Every structure is written in C-alpha cells, then in structure tokens.
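Q: Fold this one first, please.
A: Sequence and structure below.
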Amino acid sequence: MSSPLQAMQGQVPGVTITRNSAAPGDESWGLKLRGSVSANNAEPLIVIDGVAYDGVNALRNINPSDIQSINFLKDASAAIYGSRAAGGVVLVTTKQAKEGKARIEYSGSYTYKMVGLQPELMTMNEWANAVLQTCQNDGQPDSYSWVKYAKMALANEGKYIDLDHSANPFAPSYSDVMDFVFMDTNWQDVLFGNSYSTQHDLAVSGGTEKNLYRLSVGYMYDDSNLKWGNNNNQRFNLRLTNKLKVFDNFSIESVIAYNLSLIHI
C-alpha cells in the first residue's frame, strides 16, 4: 500500500476514510472519526510518537513499514488534547529498537496493475456506416451535412485533411475547424495501459540497555494506469530513533524523520 490510509480504508469500524482522486500521490484523502455527516466533523488530530500534526498529510507521507500500531480516540478519551482534538485523535506509534545485536530487516514488494473492463469503441468504418444508416432511416438527402461527412470519412479513412493546405469541403459550414481527422485510433489504448508499483524498506536496529537505535529507509514508486502525461508518485523515507538512558528514571529519546514525495501529474 502506498499510504497507511489506503490500507485502513474500509477496514476500521466507525472510521470514515475517503479518497477523491486516483492520481498517485494526489489522492486528496479525507479522514473522519465522528461520522462524515455529524455536526462536529472536523479532521482528527494526528499524533505520531507524541508529536502532533494538523491534517491527514502526516499519515499520507509516513512509511507504512515504520508503523507499529494505530489507535483512535474519540469523545472523552480525546479530551486531554484540548480543542485541537474536536475531530478526535489518531495515535501512531512507530517501531522501536530492541536490546541486542544489530538486526537488519528488509521487505520489498512489486505490484502489477492491469487495466480492467473498458468500453469497446467503434472503428471509423463502423461509425461512418452507422451514421449513413441513421440518416437513411431518417430520410435525409445526400446533401445533408452528416451524410457528406460520413462518406468523406470512408473515403479518407486513416488520413486527415489539413485545411491550411486544402479547401474546406463543407464551406461555409465548419469554418472553425482547422482540419478533419479520420484516423482509426482506439483512444482507450492511448489513454490507459498497465502499470506497476514497488516498495523497498530497509531497517537496522539494536543497541544496549542504555542506548537503543533504529534507522530505517524506504523507497516507494507508484505508477498510474493513465498513460496520457506523466502520472506517478515517488516517496523517500528516512527515520532515525535513538533512546539514551541517562539514569534509572531519566532517559532521552530523539526522533529524526525525513519524507520526500515527488509527484508528477
């Protein structure tokens, strides 16, 4: 999954997750904990390892492989966060290092995305003959513009008429047309095609009783089935967690996180 929101959509009771677009990296995610039509339907507060973020983008950018658990707080349980938690709270806990020798973890995935059912388009020949049959059924004469157009399409199938170098055969009609194109192109094949997405994650963790560390890096590439233009999303993630035990009852924990999304639309 390219986003934790995508993984949770439709899986968590009482949590409404919406997506307004299928464009990779620009899905316009929405997250509601109190119902999508309730009086108080503000977006929830996102808290990742104790750090608060406004908006769901914090969840969209985090690497799913770094997440240990996600909890949802509503009503009284969210009151400790004050007015910022009017829409509820999403608590995210990332993976922590365990004491011992260095541990190396790698996970990778590859997903091939095929185009589903598409409408079958008529060929130029089928379209032109259907137009002629329709005009004949309606009793239209040969001088009727659509009859002339369909016959010209059959005569010029696979070609085009450039009006910069040829006279307009329909003058004075269609004066705003620059050229007449009769290419037998299946635009479904031009616009849509198969694609793929891939995710690679590497983590190193370990340490002693007094010093624990975990370093993770991730790379995700998500391509789109829409082939007209450059529609894809790349994300780079880096997360370093270090926990230093100074005294028995005092420790210092630092988290350095870096996320970079390269969205091409």
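Q: Good. Now the second chain.
A: Here it is, same layout.
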Amino acid sequence: MYEIDKEAFGTFLAQLRKEKGMTQKTLAERLETLAVYVCRGSISRIEEQKRTITDIELAGIAEVLQVDISEFFKKDE
C-alpha cells in the first residue's frame, strides 16, 4: 500500500514550489485554472502541516508543479 508521508509532505511541497519559482499565491492561481480552488492561506497551512489535502488538490498540485503524483507517496512496508 502507498500513502502520503504526512510529516514530510508540507516541506516537500514548499521545496518543489520554490524550485519552480512559485509563490503560494501563484500556485493557488494556477490551481484555479484547473478548477481546483485552494487559496494561498490553505497552501500555507498545508505546507505547515496544519491542513490535510484532498486527492483532487494533490492531483492539481502535481500537474501545476509538473511532477509525477507518485513523488508524493512512499511505500508502506
């Protein structure tokens, strides 16, 4: 089974976003073009591990950041 590493996800998301040269606001705006509505504040809370992320949000983030969605998962052994 695969699952999101909840402890590392927020840090990983922030790192990827910054590597792509995006602010939280820019990420939120690009998600909106995919009909995935996540405000800048919610992205901040996700990165701080204070908010969970939905599957649709995860798929949208992977698309906007141009990474394979599997990058966000670890294998549960």
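Q: Anything worth noting on the second one?
A: The beta strands are 2-4, 73-75.
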